[in-house]
Design a protein that fits this description.
The structure is a single chain. The chain is α/β, with parallel strands linked by helices and 344 residues long. The chain contains 15 helices and seven strands. Helix 13 packs parallel to helix 15. It is globular. Bound molecules: zinc ion. Zinc ion (ZN) binds next to helix 3.
Length: 344
């Protein structure tokens, strides 16, 4: 969820995971799995439960969740809890309205440097100091690190020492969608939890509560590979059900229109989804990202396979700043060729 406040109701699939994880007794938890399933709100909901002054029973009776009204829950909601430390890249902190430390904020305001896209070493050193001091409340301290894969080697090693010898009252929640990028020694010190997404119907219902209509919610949830957060952000970026469903036919006709203004890496991703689904139906499988009726009949397996490989190659260079318009034209030309009906 791009908005990581805990005052908003937690999505139902995250509530279930929170209730299962609250009672977890280790000192470090690793939430892992694809992005767009809500790692960050889940991490904060757990922090809230662990720090709450008057936690309430969850329905299964074995665990206690945050009450949402005490001073501690309020402190988390307004992002100023003294016993919660959130470690994120500065760009993400700013995007999610988390306060930066004063000197970092000043440097950025004075244009001495740009907000960092990595988790900075000095933020990690502050974190170590945080873990060593006494909690201000009675329920210990919590550290949330997200995305944990944005720690560089130095930062990760600093953290590792703390994970090896945790001070008694600090619990760590690491969250990532790129778990393979973490140091194995960090992974091995955490209890891992694989994020679970919603069923299609549950995801659609949740998207409807976020203001999408049912048809749009259903198409975009599928387009986003079942990840509700990503579906929501697609809608925020102007994707409609009609525009998404028009893509395969537009590509065969060589039309650029539905893909106009789609950025380099997203463009490749969209084309890969078309290619994936066309290949799937070609070999008798089910499409994953498009409705069957949006896909093309009569394609060539050979052309699709060659296209798939070409797209993989393009994916590696998609962020290079060469001209977006030329790139779109070249990629649509390639798609048109790959999707042409086989000559008989
Ligand atoms: Zn509370």
């Amino acid at each position: 969820m791009t908005d990581a406040t805990v005052t908003h109701a937690l999505a139902p699939w995250l509530e279930r995971q929170r209730d299962r994880l609250i009672g977890h007794s280790g000192h470090a938890l690793l939430l892992q799995g694809p992005s767009g399933l809500g790692q960050c709100p889940l991490a904060l909901a757990l922090a809230q439960a662990w720090l709450c002054q008057q936690p309430v029973s969850v329905p299964n009776g074995h665990a206690l969740r945050g009450c949402g009204t005490c001073a501690s829950c309020h402190g988390i909601a307004v992002r100023t809890h003294p016993d919660l430390r959130v470690l994120m890249p500065e760009t993400l902190m700013l995007e999610l309205d988390w306060p930066l430390d004063e000197s970092a904020q000043k440097d950025i305001d004075d244009k001495k440097r740009k907000a960092s896209r990595e988790i900075r070493d000095d933020a990690t050193r502050d974190l170590i100091t945080f873990t060593q001091r006494t909690a201000s409340g009675e329920r210990g301290k919590v550290v949330v690190i997200y995305p944990a894969d944005r720690m560089n080697g130095v930062t990760a090693n600093t953290l590792l020492k703390t994970l090896e010898e945790p001070s008694g009252d600090t619990r760590f929640i690491l969250a990532t969608d790129a778990q393979h990028l973490l140091l194995p020694t960090i992974r091995s010190r955490c209890v891992s939890h694989d994020m679970v997404g919603p069923s299609h119907d549950e995801g659609v219902s949740w998207l409807v509560t976020q203001g999408l209509n049912t048809a749009l919610a259903s198409v975009l949830l599928k387009a986003a590979g079942g990840r509700p957060d990503d579906a929501l952000s697609m809608s925020e970026r102007g994707w409609t059900d009609a525009r998404w469903s028009a893509i395969p036919k537009a590509l065969r006709a060589g039309q650029l229109e539905p893909l106009q203004d789609v950025s380099g890496s997203e463009l490749i991703e969209v084309l890969q989804k078309v290619c994936h689904d066309q290949l799937a139906v070609q070999v008798g499988g089910s499409p994953r990202f498009f409705e069957v009726q949006a896909l093309l009949p009569h394609t060539s397996l050979t052309s699709l396979s060659a296209w798939s490989q070409a797209l993989q190659k393009s994916a590696r260079t998609a962020e290079h700043p060469f001209q977006a318009g030329l790139m779109l034209e070249a990629l649509v030309g390639q798609a048109r060729h790959a999707l042409a009906p086989p000559q008989s």
